[in-house]
Write a structure and sequence with these properties.
The chain has about 200 residues and is α/β, with parallel strands linked by helices. It has 8 helices and 10 strands. The protein has one domain (about 10-200): Vaccinia Virus protein VP39 (Rossmann fold), CATH 3.40.50. The longest helix is centred in the first third of the chain and has 19 residues, at about 40-60. The chain starts with 9 loop residues before the first helix and ends with a strand.
Length: about 200
Amino acid sequence: MAFTFFFRDTQTLELVAQYALPSLKQNRYIRVWDAGCAMGPEPYSIAIIFRENMGHFLFRNVQIHATDIDESNFESIIQRGVYSEQELGRIPRDIFGKYFAPDGAPGYFQISDELRQAVRFYRHDLLSLQPIREDFGLIVCKNVLLHFKAEQRVQVIQMFHRALVEGGYLVMEQTQKLPSELSPLFRQVTEAAQLYQKVG
C-alpha cells in the first residue's frame, strides 16, 4: 500500500469540482469510486473538496467507495481517519480547522465524522476487471495504471467505462494519457487535467 498525503495534486481535484461537480449535483446521489486509495488521503481529500463546494445538505448524498488491493490498514488507519501532522501538512489551515480534531496521540488528528461517514473502503483487485458496482458518476484512478502493462491499462479503463453512468467522469494521473484506442469512449473535458467524460 503506497504512502500518500492529503491534497496531493490539488489542482486536478479542483478542476473536478469545477467541471464535473455541477453535473454530478443534478443526481440524487453522487457516487464516486476512488480506485487505488492507498492509505486513504485521496478519498478524504475528494470528500473535503466536495464538501467545500456543496455545503452540508447536498453533501449528505455523496458516497465515496474507496478500494485498494492491500487492505491491511483499512481498519487500523483509514476507517478511523487518524493521520499524522506530516500527512496533513498540505491542507490549508482554515480547512484543516474545519475537518480535523486532535486525536489521543500527540501530533495525530482525526477527520470529522461527517467526512468519514461519506467514505467506505473495500479490497478490490482492478485486474479482476469486475467493477464494484456500475452506477458511478465519477471514477478517480491515479498512481495505479502506470504500474500495469499497456494492454491491462486498456482493459481497466474499459471496465471503468462500464462502471460509469451515462455522462459520468473519469480522472487519471496527469502523466497517464488516455490510450488512443479508447478515444471513442470519452471526451477530454479540459486540457489542464486528465479529466474525461463518458460519451460512448
